[in-house]
Amino acid sequence: MAHREDLKGQIAIVTGASSGVGWQSALRLSEAGVKLCVTARRRSALEKLRAEVLQRGGECLVCEGDVTVPEDVERVVRECVARYGRVDLLVNAAAVQSYGHFDQLPWEHITRVFDVTCFGYFRFARAVLPHFRAQGHGHLLNVQSMLSSGSAPLLSAYAAAKHATLGWAQSLELELAGTGIHISNVMVPSVSTPMFDHAPTMLGKKPVPVPPTYDVDLVARAVVRLARRPGRTSVPAFLQGRLMLWLNGIAPSVGKAVLRRYGEWMQTTTTPLHRPEGNLFAPVEEGVGPRGSVPPTPAWLRFTAPPAPASP
Ligand SMILES: NC(=O)c1ccc[n+]([C@@H]2O[C@H](COP(=O)([O-])OP(=O)(O)OC[C@H]3O[C@@H](n4cnc5c(N)ncnc54)[C@H](OP(=O)(O)O)[C@@H]3O)[C@@H](O)[C@H]2O)c1
């Protein structure tokens, strides 16, 4: 059985904390007594998060940086250790995606998606591991996706990067057995974050998550549970989570048939949109706030057929 951590006074670096899963996880960890070092490219958004954490009685160091820049990553970890004396937990959450058919995606989008979504996790892990090893303990918690073990049309580069990240995390877990360093993963369903307001698209139409969309707090609460009992893989949703994994195990052709028939339709609205780069290479400063514009699907609607994606 995994051991239990008392989170009070623990030190965590949270990447991708300027919005979405990273933002909400940082807030929830802070509520549990964790002292934070939060990072992303948008300093102004991180300062808003810091203000919210301080208002609730927490501690929060803001270190902006780009996960594709090794010097930034090293600096964030250095500043965290300089401020708090150590780092106990790394929550890897920063990611980007780009919508389009594979042969339509500019090559730079494919490599950038990997550089942020996959190699960004590797860079932060390599920067904290020497500290974890010297301390004899540490916890690397990776925000994964149901696409880390699944598939979807229009998101081939993102899905590939997520698969790679899960394979890496599972291999690292084997390497680190017995060192006191734990690896955890949370398999995230569609959640209400600005990811869909920021992502570039080659389709000329506004993208939306595969329904149903869950409240982002579902994931943040799973992050806190993993922080308390590290070394596990959490699948917090039932319908777009445990049920889907079970169905894919016993009848993989069912899920594939649904995605082949409806996958593109479910992810695109009819609203015209020209957003060829989104937040891929530079942040979208005038963001839509930490939770984005797509509301969670009400619980009573989750088991019904998804409504036709609307034009907002
Ligand atoms: N939303 C979903 O439905 C969903 C589903 C499955 C998995 N996930 C996973 O959840 C995690 C968080 O995504 P989200 O939904 O919360 O999306 P989000 O709101 O767009 O958050 C992405 C975060 O990554 C940061 N980021 C992007 N590029 C960066 C870079 N080059 N360097 C540093 N930070 C960078 C962004 O901040 P800046 O722009 O300020 O840098 C932002 O804080 C990701 O790992 C994603 O794969 C999300």
Automatic annotation (TrEMBL):
Q: Which GO terms describe its molecular function?
A: oxidoreductase activity
The UniProt family comment states: Belongs to the short-chain dehydrogenases/reductases (SDR) family.
- Keywords in UniProt for this one? Oxidoreductase
Q: What is this protein called?
A: SDR family NAD(P)-dependent oxidoreductase
Q: Does the keyword Oxidoreductase apply?
A: yes
Lineage of the species this protein comes from: Bacteria, Pseudomonadati, Myxococcota, Myxococcia, Myxococcales
Does Oxidoreductase show up as a keyword for this record? Answer: yes
* InterPro entries listed in its UniProt record: NAD(P)-bd_dom_sf, SDR_fam
User: Which Pfam families does the entry mention?
Assistant: adh_short
Q: Where is this region: Disordered?
A: 284-312
Question: What cellular-component terms does GO give this entry?
Answer: membrane
Q: Which domain of life is it from?
A: Bacteria
